[in-house]
Each structure stands twice: as C-alpha cells, then as structure tokens.
Amino acid sequence: MELRPDEITALIKEQIRGFDTKIRRDDTGSVVTVGDGIVRIHGLEQCMLNELLEFDNGVRCMALNLEQDFVGAVMLGSDADIKEGAAVRRTGQIVSVPVGEELLGRVVGSLGNPIDGKGAVLTTETRPIEKIAPGIITREHVKVPLQTGIKAIDSMIPIGRGQRELIIGDRQTGKTTIALDTIINQKGGDVICIYVAIGQKSSTVASVVQQLSASGAMDYTIVVAANASELAPIQYIAPYAGAAMGEYFVEKGKDVLIIYDDLSKHAVAYRALSLLLKRPPGREAYPGDVFYLHSRLLERAANLNENYGGGSLTALPIIETQAGDISAYIPTNVISITDGQIFLESELFNSGVRPAVNPGISVSRVGGDAQIKAMKKVAGSLKLEYSQYRELQAFAQFGSDLDKDTKERLDKGERIVEILKQGKSAPLSVANQIYIIFAVINNYLKDIAVDQIGEYEEQLFSFMEETHSELTAIITKEKVLTSSDEQNLNAIIGEFTDKYIKSH
Predict the structure, then answer these.
(1) Catalytic residue among 89, 271, 365, 409
(2) Which residue would you say has higher pLDDT here, 21 or 412?
(3) Dihedral through CA 357, CA 363, CA 364, CA 368, nearest 10?
C-alpha cells in the first residue's frame, strides 16, 4: 500500500482547523466521610445551596451545608454503596419537582416520583422546591370564603382563600378528619387540593387515599407522601414540593388548598438532619433556624391580586401537641406564623363532641371578611353564646340553685353544642348550616329534647329541600339573607318545629 504524504497532511490540517479549543471543567469533588445519610464532600467550590449532586452509581444527594472547605449534603437515596474517596459531581440543578395537571389524582413521593402503581407521571414542566414568597404588592386581602362544610368552623372560625389556618391538638382528636372533610367539601367547586403527608404510616396514607377516592375527591387532589419509613431529607423536602406543585396552579389564576400533615414531624425530621450536619442545637435541640423553616413555607400561602393572576394558595398546617400544651416550642412558632388556629380538645372529643373544636381559644384573624353575609348575619352571636355556656357550665356544677336566666342559657348552650356535632365525611352546604344555626339562635329548639336534635336536623334539611328549594337556591347564589328572607325563614322554621313537636 502506497502512503500519500499530501493526503495525510491535508487530513491533519483539517483536524487542526476543527479542533475545539474551549476548556471544559467538570466540577467534581470527593467524599470525605459518609454515614447516617449525611455525606461530607471536598472540592466542590462552586456548589449552590439545595443543589443536586450525583455519584457515579446514579444516587443523588442535596447540598445543605456550604462550609469553607467542605460541602455537607444529605442523601436522597441509599448510601450503602458510597465509600470514602468516591467521586461526586455537580448537576447544576436546584432540587426540583414535576408540576402540572397530570399530577391530579395521583399519589407521588417528595421528588414527584409516582408511588400509586399507575405508571409514570408525564409532565413537561418542573419547578424548584424553594421559592421566595409573594411580596406585599402582589397580594390582595383575604375576602373570599373557603367553605369547609363543617358547621363549627364555617360559623365561628371562618377560613378565607389565601389564609393560613393552623389545626392544632393532641393525637387522635380529629385533626386529619377536619382537613379531609374540607377537601371533600370542594367537590364540584373550583378549588384544587394538595394533601402532604409527612412522617405518617403507609397504612394511614393508604386509608386517606381510599377515603378521598370513595368520596370522588381524588379527581382534583394531589397526594404527596413522605412516609415514616422514608429518609429524613425526603420528609424535609415534602411540604416544599407540595407548595411548588400548588404554585403552578396559583399562577394560572386558580384557587389551591394545601394541607401539611403534620409540621411537628417535619420539624423533627429537620432537627435530625441539622444535628447530623453538626449545626449548633438550640431550644429542645432544634436548630436556630427552625422558625424560618416553617415561616418561609407558610408565607408562600397568599391571595394574589388580579394584576398577578388572581390565584390563591390556602394553607392548613397541622401541629400535634403533647397533653394540650400549646406553649411548647414548635406550636408557639407556628401559631405566631399563621392567621389563626382551630384548637381541638381531647376532653371534648372523648365526651362525644365531634369535631372537638374549642371555640374559646380557636380564632380566625381574618374573621368575618372570609364569611358570606348570610352566615355572618345568622351566626354573629353564636361564638359568644357558646363561650358563655362553657363558663356557666363550669360554675353551675358547684351550685344547685340557678336562676331562670342561667337555666335558659345553659339549655340553649346544650343545644348549640348538639347542633355543632357532625359526622365524619359529611360536609354540609352553606344553606343547610344557616338553617340549623338560625333555628338554635332564635330559640326554636328550646322545646326539643337534646337527644332528638340530630333527628330534627335531618328532617329540617329534607323539609327545606323538598318544599323550599327556591330559598336554598337564593342563599347559595346571592350569599345574603334579606329582611324578607329572614321573616320567611322565621315562618318556615316555626311551622316545621310545631309539626315536629306535635308528631313527637
């Protein structure tokens, strides 16, 4: 074979002309120590906070501590195959989750990976889990009600779209039930719901999904689950991931309800991470920034004004107390961040008052602004009369000689407590809530035995639906109760009550 020098020269010249002189730099570090789900890495000088880092075996971790010589990262997968000296490279991406309509009806993990066995979630868009909360210029004051369908809440502690209302109480007092009933009550409405389960048992999450599916609520709900068996970093990410998924819809002008169940376990997961990252512990061994942990999350709940899309994100965080102690560290932190709290009491729950809402220390700082005018008019004195009853009840047990006025107040208070009782997964329409509250406030129940009030209530709702559906339609549409409507309602409920008493 003959060698042709001119051809070889031409080929070399062509290769020199096409040679890429750009220097590429792969930012790679090496593992110094690994253990307990925490990895310390040397050599990643340009690393960003919350950046995804990747090992050669495909497992990822998240940078949380940016020190002078090292990066402290938390594992987002198993560290079993990670050894000292292993290479770690930057991805240049902040931890993000998939967002979009495709997530509705699905159960996903903290990083958006499906865990319901229904195949991949085919979304095209992702969002970083952290985002700076909307500023004051972009917000509108909270004025549109978010109906929970729960009489005790809609009448005395109303929640508005864009509000942050804390649900607080001991374990097994019905906190999750209130949150789920609120989701179920949005059926047929325009609110998208997100339920974030943090540190719950897998069986608990499965029963929540089953309950939502049975009520037809999964069609407009996303469930984000970071179960108790998951790593602490996965539990830490979960609520931020849920907020990012919700913000996608908010920016499209939609109303979103997000439930964080619960932030006590979230704080515990963050404490575990912080201690392992050797951050200095403070009160109750929580790190100094545990307040910021929840404030930056809950501040993302907002009611945006029309210039910024007009959507809203309403947050219902849940906090578990120990023996009713709301002055503990995490409860006081979250109470000070939120716009009010619904306090559930073990004593009330065990005595059969369910939902076990204590109206004395439950409050909504948005108040009547987030209540329809008809409900405001009817239930204006309800909370005061309930609270007075609770006080009188405490004194009445010490003496047998009670005057007529006190006896009447106690009798009315008993009936108020009875009408505020409500079954699980049985949210009520606003009109029905107004009818029964109107009846008790205007003393139509005074001649009805307390144990018959449940039956009276059911029959009243059926009677109104069958014979006065036009009044229900007016209240539902207009959301007001005019003087003529009130006179009409007085006559209707008076007539129904007389019939009921005669038949019994």
Answers:
(1) 365
(2) 412
(3) 90
